[in-house]
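U., I forgot to send this yesterday:
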Amino acid sequence: MSSPSRAMDTTPQLTGLLQLPALALMLLVAAPAPAAANEEEAALATQLANPIANLISVPFQGNYDGNIGPEEDGEKLFVNFQPVIPFTLNQDWNLISRTILPITWQDSVFPGAGTQFGFGNTRQSLFFSPSTPSHGILWGAGPIFLVPTHTEELLGLDTWGVGPTAVGLWQGKGWTVGILANQIWSVAGDQDEEINAAYLQPFISYTTPNAWTFAVNSESTYDWDRDTWSVPINVVVSKLVKVGGKVPVSIFGGVRYWVDAPEDIGPEGWGARFGFTLLLPRNRS
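Result:
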């Protein structure tokens, strides 16, 4: 664990991030439970399980990992700001913009690293997708871009990247099963920090008639140059509620377990996931 002096220096930043799960829990407890199953909320929760749904969503996804580094005394807490915005191209096709910008606090991720707090690098995906599923099957494909937006040296590489990304899924009777994948190669920036990495996210979830969703996924990354895997398994429970009876919000929490990670660099054991997602349904045109 961190030394007392280091923990004292970063307490205000760390405390602010740790307040997010408490806020989400208070919102969930304060939300009135429906007397009967709410079909509209269940439909929204099912759409939210689809990464390329015709739905504007703004997730704030918190993640905590520990046991990082050769001495296993490092820790990391980051919140991903992940807006997903669909655009109608024509009657048959949509373009879905999916952005991931991490806000990170980390300490002692390797000996002598100290503490960092700030933005990480941004991943911007664009999916061209049919507007209507076929037999419950929906897919999307397009480019992904890596943009060096980090504000601290150890929070990202000084490298621009690009590659292909795709997602395919099936939905039916409350179930969502699919996989999202991408590959990024560095194309500009620091040549000593080249990137050649694949990302695989298989996922499965079930949404109940009263808008509870139980989900399991993996967010695995493979570094082709170093021949190393990073494989966390996430188990998350979420509930869709309407704050003030009007604004749909999905509140979620769960655990993660690291099956594999680069030796002396990646985290080990258990971690946590928590946060909330604001939703704005969008009429098809």
